[in-house]
Amino acid sequence: MDRIMVKGINQNMDEIIGRWITKMKEEKGERFFHFMPEHLVEKTSREFAELMTSNITDPSNVTVANTERINDFTEKVVRFGWTIKFVNKAIDNFSEVVFVFLEENGIINESNLRPFILVFRNWINPLRESIIEAYSTEWERTVSLQKIALQELSASLIPVFDKISVMPLVGTIDTERAKLIMENLLEGVVSQRAEVVLLDITGVPVVDTMVAHHIIQAAEAVRLVGAKCMLVGIRPEIAQTIVALGIDLQEFTTKSTLQRGMQAALGLTNRAIVEVQA
Length: 278
Hints:
Helices cover 62% and strands 10% of the residues. It has 11 helices and 5 strands, in the order αααααααββαβαβαβα. 26% of the residues are buried.
């Protein structure tokens, strides 16, 4: 019976894929099938269809010969931005399209309905579990790599003038990231021979007691290696939070913007920006 189903699917694969694409385009919030190039949608859809039909005759094939194909496909759809919910819906829609198509063409009828339901169950459930497990693993790997890249990019000390450096901070600052900031800050101050360091928190969404504690520690460490630390990018809502929490930032200079901080830093190094008359 499963071989009859495979034959019916393979002989009508183009129509099944077309129906499946139509159903996927109707999903709420769907972007991939509407905005990606047509050839990419067609290629990805065919890969998905081949993956979905690869284990009908032998469900154990999902965990043996098919593992590499599943991993390759999940890696691709993670890059395309498919969510786990969307992947699950894709599987449901494909099995529904196949069932309706086989029913329309008389392959599934009242006399063999129960056996075919069993075939579908043995086909879909193991495949769903394998795809979702591979997707979860790939998603965790992608998020981990992105987190590492963000940490490295957002904790760099940048020399902007002789003796003046800036460290722009972006995103949430936790204990692990604060340690990275501290290491890069101290190494950068020494290697760049900076006398003034500007910590720019414009890109930090929330400053709570813990974040302020990490910033104060960083400023104190900079002072101990012979440089001055200035906190810039303090937005009005951040200023209100700092006051409400009773956080004491009086020991080092604060400025509302990076521009004003840079002007103050030039003053601390006995320099100024002078407009040249034409």
